[in-house]
Amino acid sequence: xxxxxxxxxxxxxxxxxxxxxxxxxxxxxxxxxxxxxxxxxxxxxxxxxxxxxxxxxxxxxxxxxxxxxxxxxxxxxxxxxxxxxxxxxxxxxxxxxxxxxxxxxxxxxxxxxxxxxxxxxxxxxxxxxxxxxxxxxxxxxxxxxxxxxxxxxxxxxxxxxxxxxxxxxxxxxxxxxxxxxxxxxxxxxxxxxxxxxxxxxxxxxxxxxxxxxxxxxxxxxxxxxxxxxxxxxxxxxxxxxxxxxxxxxxxxxxxxxxxxxxxxxxxxxxxxxxxxxxxxxxxxxxxxxxxxxxxxxxxxxxxxxxxxxxxxxxxxxxxxxxxxxxxxxxxxxxxxxxxxxxxxxxxxxxxxxxxxxxxxxxxxxxxxxxxxxxxxxxxxxxxxxxxxxxxxxxxxx
Length: 397
Description:
elongated; 2 domains; Hypothetical protein af1432
């Protein structure tokens, strides 16, 4: 029997139903979800090389999986599905034994009822393959939005994530292909969701950082808008200082490169001519001197300073150490650094004091860089002018 023609009719009819009778509260179980489910089901069918009959069964189940959602929502969905699907398929028509197997595939997705036949296992794994999707978190948000719209009940973020974690951790793929394809990515999604839950729980325990900052005596009369502006100032200042530091390094690199080339040219082409043209000696020495001095100041501008890499407990207690600069902690054990960071994060005065000191130290470092760069550029500008003048004069003396 050729199953392609009835499958095409079912697909066309199902698509028309989705488009004409859709429920706008269905943010997840809609036509887009059905198309993804059909594609996933076909991948399983191709892997297991199902014959025409069994491929027809699982593909029809995929096309009809979401239809009852348009009418019944999530309440007693498995009961209504069998009656609706049977009436739907009899009009195609489809053989009664095939209708029964399609119904079993659909019912097998209703947890905790386990699938038994290969078709049921394949279809169940296709339905829940989104657990291993890279877009799982987005799909999970759509599921939450849909259930809230259908039930009229709002879920707190922690409650919904706990529910999703329960589903993810308790789910197992039934087929070997499903395990190979999705177990690893499902574990990654479970880990990401667990971390998200832990982060939110930690934030809730610590409270709102803006409120904590507002409790500081110096800021108790400031509005939330003002505090947000303060944080923006810190963020923009750090970003601007970083950009200026990169600019200074690029300028120093230009000076080093240009003067290195001039030294190479001078050594290779001019010094060998001293015997033939002795009067080039003084201008050449002047050129080399200018190039070397320029390179020295450019290197000094980019040379890192001496960093001790450690801090003491006394500095932490006195709130004088800058924990935001790596040069103050790169030799410290992780436990000591973590202890200092946690103390800083729990103390608003310590935290914002660190931000202020960090910006100040960046500014001091930038001032030193640009001062040395100015000397380097000045030497190069006047030195090259003097060198050219010396070369010109040497031909008239």
